[in-house]
Amino acid sequence: MTYGVTFPLWREAAGETWRNYTRHAFVEGMRDGTLPREAFLRYLVQDYVFLVHFSRAWALAVTKAETLEEMRACAATVHALLDEEMRLHVETCAAEGISEADLFAAEEAPQNLAYTRYVLDAGHSGDFLDLMAALAPCVLGYGEIGARLAAHADETVYAEWIATYSGEDYQRTCRDVGAMIDAAVARRLGPAPEESPRWPRLADRFRTATRLEVGFWDMGLSG
Ligand SMILES: Cc1ncc(C[n+]2csc(CCO)c2C)c(N)n1
Fold first, then answer.
1. 1 part of a folded domain
2. Helices then strands, each counted (H, E), the chain
3. How confident is the model at residue 211 (pLDDT cuts 50, 70, 90)?
4. Where would you tag: which of 8, 79, 123, 195 has the fewest CB atoms within 10 A of its CB?
5. d(Cα 182, Cα 14) in Å, to the nearest integer?
6. Where does ligand 1 bind, in terms of residues with CB under 6 Å?
7. Which active-site residues does the annotation give?
8. Distance from the CA of 154 to the center of ligand 1, in angstroms?
9. Which ligand 1 atom is nearest residue 216's CA?
10. What CATH number does residue 213 fall under?
11. 59 contacts: CB under 8 Å, gap ≥ 6
């Protein structure tokens, strides 16, 4: 999966950290069905809270945007997160006796706090590109993981999770976000973005957010 031209460059620069995220033991446990249910539910409850703050980060992107097109794309993501992605968590947890009020009130794990507040700070202290570099591993990493796990969906009880991220709707979202990032980079950094003095810091933001994704999976496994 390439999702544009910027993402593969940032992914390459993140080196083995990217592999640690996308091939994490938690992911492999979903692939072959060996992930304990308890770990999956712990992850889902934390992920609901994660998505609350992630929605705030995309809303911040609306205020940091420079074009109507960027504003529309980010506003649509806020809407999709609040009204679609979170519903999946609510429904899966409801079937396990966990209400939405319980989810909203769940105490945030330190790894969760660290990740979402890092992303929000990237947006507050930086510009639209800083924020996009911090948001990209989450959105595009799940697209890559979903696409790889799709071939194994009939071997695992986590088929629904895999279907969500490997499905055409989500894969289209990833291509759209990749294209938006490419356009945002070209607009602000010109035709040779890798030569911009800002480039190393953007790649570093991407790698830091990727490290925080690894921490999020670790949290799911270890509680
Ligand atoms: C820890 C964690 N990382 C990534 C995602 C995936 N994700 C987060 S927001 C979004 C929609 C577009 O922004 C998607 C797919 C997640 N749920 N939890």
1. no
2. 12, 0
3. very high
4. 195
5. 18
6. 47, 50-51, 54, 77, 81, 85, 138-139, 142, 213, 216
7. 138, 213
8. 23
9. 1
10. 1.20.910.10
11. 74, 78
